UniProtKB/TrEMBL annotation, chain A:
Organism: Paraflavisolibacter caeni
All residue ranges annotated as the ABC3 transporter permease C-terminal domain in the record: 273-384
UniProt xrefs under PANTHER family: ABC TRANSPORTER PERMEASE YTRF, MEMBRANE COMPONENT OF TRANSPORTER-RELATED
Name the record gives this protein: ABC transporter permease
The family this protein is said to belong to: Belongs to the ABC-4 integral membrane protein family.
GO cellular component: plasma membrane
Keyword annotations from UniProtKB, A to Z: Cell membrane, Membrane, Transmembrane, Transmembrane helix
Transmembrane segments: 17-38, 265-294, 323-340, 352-374
Lineage: superkingdom: Bacteria
Lipid bilayer topology: Multi-pass membrane protein
Domain MacB-like periplasmic core: from-to ranges: 27-230
Subcellular location: Cell membrane
Pfam families (UniProt xref): FtsX (PF02687), MacB_PCD (PF12704)
Keyword Membrane: yes
TrEMBL record, chain B:
Origin: domain of life: Bacteria
Entry annotated with the keyword Nucleotide-binding: yes
A GO term, aspect molecular function: ATP hydrolysis activity
GO CC annotations on file: membrane protein complex
Domain ABC transporter positions: 2-230
Family: Belongs to the ABC transporter superfamily. Macrolide exporter (TC 3.A.1.122) family.
Protein name (record): ABC transporter ATP-binding protein
Organism from which the protein derives: Paraflavisolibacter caeni
Keyword annotations of the record: ATP-binding, Nucleotide-binding, Translocase, Transport
Species lineage: Bacteria, Pseudomonadati, Bacteroidota, Chitinophagia, Chitinophagales
Gene3D superfamilies xref list: P-loop containing nucleotide triphosphate hydrolases
Amino acid sequence: MISHLFKLIWNKKKQNFLLITEMFVSFLVMFAVFTMIVRAYNNYRHPLGFEYDDVWVASYMTPENIQSDDSAALFQDVLRKQLQSFPQVVEAGFSGHNFPFAMTMSNSMVSSDQNEGVMTNFYNADDNYLKVLNAKMLSGRWFSKADDVSKSPVVVINRKLQEELFEGKNAIGKYIEYGGDRLKVIGVMENMKDKGTYTPVENGLFKRIDAGAAKWTSNILIKVKPGADAVFEGKLFKALSNTIGTSVEIEHMDKKLTRQNKLSLIPMIIMLVVGGFLIINVALGLFGVLWYNINKRRSEIGLRRAVGASGNSVSKQLVGESLVLSTLALLIGLFFAIQFPLLKVFDLPASVYLVAIALSVAFIYILVFLCALYPGRQAAAIYPAVALHEE
Amino acid sequence: MIQLKQIEKSYRTDTIETLALNRINLSVFQGEFLSIMGPSGCGKSTLLNIMGLLDAPTKGEVLIDGRLTTHLSDKQLAHFRNQTIGFIFQSFHLINDLRVLDNVELPLLYRKVSASERVQLAKEALTKVGLSNRMKHFPSQLSGGQKQRVAIARAIVGRPQIILADEPTGNLDSAMGNEIMDLLLHLNATEGTTIVMVTHDETMAKKTHRLVRLFDGAQVNDHTLKQVYA
Ligand SMILES: Nc1ncnc2c1ncn2[C@@H]1O[C@H](COP(=O)(O)OP(=O)(O)OP(=O)(O)O)[C@@H](O)[C@H]1O
Ligand SMILES: [Mg+2]
């Protein structure tokens, strides 16, 4: 029977070409849709890499009277000590304006001896930053007092940047070139999804807030104890306002995350709607073509029934033919789809493409099966005499 | 061989009910060559389809080889058709996308026959109808008479006991028609195949053993032309 199917398919290659093309295009469309979905799901599934519960952010303007670098550093010390003196405060640390879930970013190109021109996010952080966010080190260490006296500027990079700049080999002690500076890597930390639940992991490079940077860093991340309430927040606000003298704003990181996620969900919802339409389109298109093809063959079906095919074996044959055709279309589709991970088109891991390929193959098979089964069943259910009559 | 008992067939469309066959009682005997005649629309094709189990009667019973066929499942009916009946149609009903040889093999595809045996049997059948040199052609490359000979080869390839032919010469000129008729007569005489043939051609009908005339769905005449010598 199989060889009979192939003969039939081969002899009808002209008509089947159209069907195979339709299936092939459908596969590519589904591959694109699934790639986006798998990528979004991968992003979503990736752990945040830090804790944002009970982390508050106090932002202020550095007072005018603080002019020198040293006095700025001193001022930060005063604020840190003041915050640490509250029993409700677990830890407090300074960050640049692009702290987690803030809607600002700063990025630049960096290079290493192995690799040049990698775009990375730049973060400014003090010695307490890691502890406040409960982020994890992979190797090396986070910043400490000892770095006050280091000869070259020191940085901590994230796992992703280590992969991109140093091919995943241990980067500790190696140097990163940035605008003529050589930055020494002293630590590698776990990736942080600092732009929300649904965003991809990006390259990250952390610079220590030294005296020179203190004047420009005026965001304090404050980890409070679970019970800390609005009353305490009021108290904290008053104390900070007194010390700083300019306006202070306190925000909660969990609320910022919610807002951030809402924003990043909008494009994803649009994408899902578009993807949904494409899926429906593909389904209807395939159904239409298969329906038409099978209905054109009613007299053939009648004849097969007359010479001894049961309704069941006719519908099996029609489904079988469609599945053979879709296999051919999928083989062509696979050839193109596999180029994406092979040629590294777009900056996506190969696993995303492979999962998307598997999903699209399964989707097309199931769709073709269902789209052929229904008209096939219908055609097989009519009396052979009736099917033969229509010529 | 085939027994029809009180067969009625009506077609119901939206507005009207057509009685295509009205209480037909007919027996076809083993080895007989029976012809059916009647004006257009009198129910000849309907009768043949019911004999061939391609269609179910509205009322009445069809017995083949003494076996009642009323309660057979779709699968059993298909098996029955495959084993015992060969069909020949006025419009040939060849599958245009299959070569002649593959068309002839078709009934064997629904039996447990090996591929090489299928080819062997199909070639033999094509030789019998004188088309052994056209096996690799597609139906569209054949004349009407050749197409009908392919259809005959397909009907006989599985060695059925019965052949049902619905105006097998209806689409052919008289020379080709005679060739086809000779083939059927030869088949009946040498292999003893029972043949029921619907025809509009009086001279063709005269060459058969028995002639049944239908009019408006009813049997009006049953006329034995020759004795069947077993
Ligand atoms: N599927 C159908 N639905 C409705 N009516 C039908 C159907 N098939 C046949 N008929 C009707 O049944 C009657 C008998 O039709 P049938 O085809 O058996 O005639 P016939 O004797 O073979 O005619 P012809 O010599 O033209 O082939 C006709 O009146 C026809 O209109
Ligand atoms: Mg007819």
